[in-house]
Amino acid sequence: MLAVLTATALCSGAFANDSSAALGAGGIVLTQSADISMAREDLWVSRNSVRVRYEFVNESGAPITTRVAFPLPEANLELLTEADVGWPTEDAKNTVDFRVKVEGRAVAPTLEEKAFLKGVDVTEVLRRHGIPISPRAHEVTEVITRLGAPARAELATRGLIRESKEWVQPLWTVKNTYHWAQTFPIGRPLVVEHAYKPVVGGTIIPAESFDEIAKYEYYKQFCIDGPTLAAMKALLKGARRKQGEGAATIAWFVDYVLTTGKNWKGPIGRFRLTLDKERKSNVISLCMKGVRKIGPTTFVVERRDFEPDEDLHVMILEQPQP
After folding, report:
1. Residue 288 lies in a domain
2. Which of 80, 117, 198, 204 would you label with 304, given CA atoms 20 to 30 Å apart?
């Protein structure tokens, strides 16, 4: 992906449109019950890994068995057919290498696969034609191109595809979810841990465009302040000394859906976010107050009675590696 990004950016001389897509996943959600609270959430985020440890408390007077879900990143195939996506795994059924443990023991969740077009469930239509309910747009288009003319005509009539003689574009959104039945005991917290590899976006920022960065609406979601902008410019100057006139840096984007924390009873009792920018020379930026540096590459944010009203968007800027 880095090679593709570098080539397209150097050819176009721009950075806003030469990016790969970031797809935000998040925490696990409760499908029913108003009696289970999230006493603690420890979230660890880097470009290569997301890990979460929860402590849940059943506040009722009896054990509760209910279904817990982990929604995978939504995938709008209409957009993804026109964007580069750095899928972290080759597993079509587990594109983010999702793993979950309860009380230290691995759980094998069930995968629910769903497709929607303008809010209407079209899963069975796609299954009837043997089309995978996959977020990988290229796999879907390969199957569609092998379908006969009647099948493709039906898909077009239903508004599910757009096509010409040279290409085909699926127009639905995939919303897949892992879920499992979970019993929450009374009298003690239940520890649930999960981990996955995020779908990271990225773009090249050439030296010639860098002074225009503050003008791009896209970057406001990372709250780039004066000190951060100065650090970014210093990083680019270092790149220019090494690379010459073609100097550029890489901006990586990691999204995390924090607002799933509202699906539990009350606020999150104790919340701790740990961010790792991975290299000392990297620059990190995000829209969250109270960020503290605790190590050469790590930062933390801590909250009590936390009710997230916005999702997390993190930018990590680094020099390309030789």
Report:
1. yes
2. 198
In a domain, 289, yes or no: yes
pLDDT band at residue 233 using 50, 70 and 90 as cut-offs: confident
175 close to 114: Cβ distance less than 8 angstroms: yes
Ramachandran angles phi, psi of 122, nearest 5°: -115, 20
Structural domain containing residue 166: 115-173
Both tokens of 165, joined, read: 């003689």
Mean pLDDT of the region 126-145: 94
Which tokens go with 279?
């290299």
Residue 185 resides in a domain: no
Q: What's the rounded mean pLDDT across residues 163-179?
A: 90
Last residue of a domain, one of 139, 173, 207: 173
Same domain, 312 and 202: yes
What is the length of the chain?
Answer: 322
Nearest alpha carbon to residue 45 among 283, 307, 253: 253
HEC-encoded secondary structure of 3-53? HHHHHHHHHHCCCCCCEECCECEECCEECCCCCEEEEEEEEEECCCCEEEE
Q: Which residue do the tokens 């801590």 mark?
A: 302
Return the amino acid letter for 88. P
Residue-level pLDDT at 48: 92
Task: Please state the φ and ψ torsions of residue 191, each to the nearest 5 degrees.
Answer: -95, 125
Asked if 268 and 303 count as a contact pair (C-beta separation under 8 A), the reply is yes
Q: Is 40 exposed, middle or buried (0-12, 13-18, 19+ CB in 10 A)?
A: middle
Q: 3: exposed, middle or buried (C-beta count within 10 Å: 0-12, 13-18, 19+)?
A: exposed
* 95 falls within a domain: no
Q: Looking at the structure, do residues 30 and 126 belong to the same domain, yes or no?
A: no
Whether residues 6 and 48 fall in one domain: yes
